[in-house]
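Tip: read the tokens left to right.
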């Protein structure tokens, strides 16, 4: 699917949603949503726009969403404070951007060697994740809902091959969250740039490498113009959960029905964004190789092991921040081991043998 066709379809869908609801519903509530993603960015940006439109559609116009992409109302990384201060009602983004406020926020997006899409949703829905997330966000006057997931992300784009952990020393890389802390421990110089600023920094040489999402999202970012080596499966975001996070006072002012409508729309998009990535990543990985000459690589075991050792240090440092951070880390680690064993013994063995027998991959 070409970008222009995809965006045209998204625009038609958004327009259809608007037409399905009354133009101005009697007594409608306004929900101003700010986002960390650029407008019409395939994948993340379109997902956020789709969610905003869906809230208005499901509510039959009772909740009128006003959506602002990154930079249209506030900067991409300013949306957290914008909503915490009550200037807008909600943001759509990735909470690991704000680990400087509290390291526990990373656990509700992604942490190195952490949870996959199914696992993080299980933790938040049926484990301790929901209660811990509430306790953490209460400190900032916020309330978050899972509203998207990228699945396991690519290891990233590099302007040279990574054959050992030593190759990471001195590397300038865009990688946020705890994944960035892991890379820093291995000698890389890391920065956390919003999506709209990555390309220019990579092309100019201000950075040597970047992670973003996966083949479908990355295809349109044109990182291949400056970095030809594309690494599969990274350690940093095994199932990055995105959130629709509201100002808690505003959220509490809604009726039970209004909260249920917003939650339902978010749950739809949480699943849809992941399914979209699964459906399109294979196609776009092939296109990157065939059309742009991208060289696909995988990290070797030595690099993986070095990252793993660094990740253990990062977890210890995060847990030492305060009691809540310690409890979040302990809960995630326990759940990851419980869920991970079952996944490996059932799904893992099945996929490994299916792919072997049918020569997939």
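Filled-in amino acids:
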């Amino acid at each position: 699917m070409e970008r222009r066709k995809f965006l045209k379809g998204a625009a038609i869908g958004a327009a259809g949603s608007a037409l399905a609801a009354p133009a101005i519903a009697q007594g409608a509530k306004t929900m101003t949503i700010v986002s960390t993603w650029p407008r019409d960015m395939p994948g993340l940006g379109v997902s956020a726009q789709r969610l905003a439109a869906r809230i208005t559609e499901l509510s039959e116009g009772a909740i009128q969403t006003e959506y602002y992409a990154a930079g249209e109302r506030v900067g991409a990384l300013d949306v957290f404070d914008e909503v915490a201060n009550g200037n807008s009602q909600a943001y759509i983004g990735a909470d690991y951007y704000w680990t400087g406020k509290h390291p526990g926020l990373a656990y509700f997006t992604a942490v190195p060697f952490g949870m996959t899409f199914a696992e993080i949703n299980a933790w938040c829905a049926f484990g301790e994740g929901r209660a811990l997330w509430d306790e953490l966000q209460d400190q900032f006057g916020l309330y978050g809902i899972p509203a998207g997931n990228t699945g396991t992300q690519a290891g990233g784009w590099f302007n040279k091959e990574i054959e050992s952990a030593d190759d990471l020393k001195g590397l300038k890389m865009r990688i946020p969250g705890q994944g960035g802390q892991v890379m820093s421990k291995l000698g890389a110089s890391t920065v956390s740039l919003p999506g709209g600023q990555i390309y220019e920094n990579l092309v100019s040489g201000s950075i040597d490498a970047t992670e973003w999402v996966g083949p479908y999202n990355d295809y349109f970012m044109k990182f291949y113009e400056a970095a030809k080596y594309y690494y599969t499966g990274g350690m940093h975001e095994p199932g990055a959960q995105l959130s629709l996070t509201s100002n808690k006072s505003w959220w509490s002012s809604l009726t039970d029905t209004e909260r249920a409508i917003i939650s339902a729309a978010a749950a739809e998009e949480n699943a849809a964004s992941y399914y979209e990535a699964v459906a399109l990543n294979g196609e776009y990985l092939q296109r990157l190789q065939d059309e742009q000459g991208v060289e696909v690589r995988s990290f070797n075991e030595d690099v993986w092991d070095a990252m793993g050792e660094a990740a253990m240090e990062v977890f210890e440092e995060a847990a030492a921040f305060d009691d809540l951070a310690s409890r979040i880390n302990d809960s995630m680690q326990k759940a990851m081991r419980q869920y991970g064993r079952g996944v490996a013994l059932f799904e893992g063995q099945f996929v490994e043998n299916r792919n072997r027998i049918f020569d997939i991959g």
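The chain is about 50% helix and 15% strand. Residues 1-23 have pLDDT under 50 and may be disordered.
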